[in-house]
Amino acid sequence: MNEDTMKGQWKQLVGEAKRQWGKLTDDDLLRAEGDVEKLAGSVQERYGVTRDEAHAQVKTWRENASKAADRAGL
């Protein structure tokens, strides 16, 4: 899933992001609005992980979300 697609489907993806990272607030997710850098920054801040680890988590999450969207025919 590329970043443009992610931004376009962000409202649908917010629930998945909340399940993945329960510590993220609605404000964190609203601020991210599908922006990978902002989402990774929020993950880094809330979970106290390194920047690289936050980016790795977001990358894996995006890949899984893309696979799920493909299976659902989105």
Major pleated sheet: none
Q: What's the end-to-end separation, in Å? A: 11 Å
* Rg calculated over all Cα atoms: 11 Å
Number of strands: 0
Q: How much helical structure, as a percent, in the residues? A: over 70%
Q: Would you tell me the overall average pLDDT?
A: 89
* Global structural class: mainly alpha
| H/E element order | HHHHH
* Low-confidence blocks of residues: none
What is the global morphology? globular
* Range of strand content: under 5%
Tally the helices: what do you get?
A: 5
Task: Summarize the structure in words.
It is a single chain. This protein has helices at 3-8, 10-20, 26-32, 36-47, 51-72. The protein is built from five helices and no strands. The longest helix is centred in the last third of the chain and has 22 residues, at 51-72. It is globular, with a radius of gyration of 11 Å.
Entry summary:
It is built from five helices and no strands.
Structural descriptors:
single chain, 78% helix
Detail the topology: elements first, then pairings.
Layout lengths: L2 H6 L1 H11 L5 H7 L3 H12 L3 H22 L2
Helix pairs in contact: 3-4, 4-5
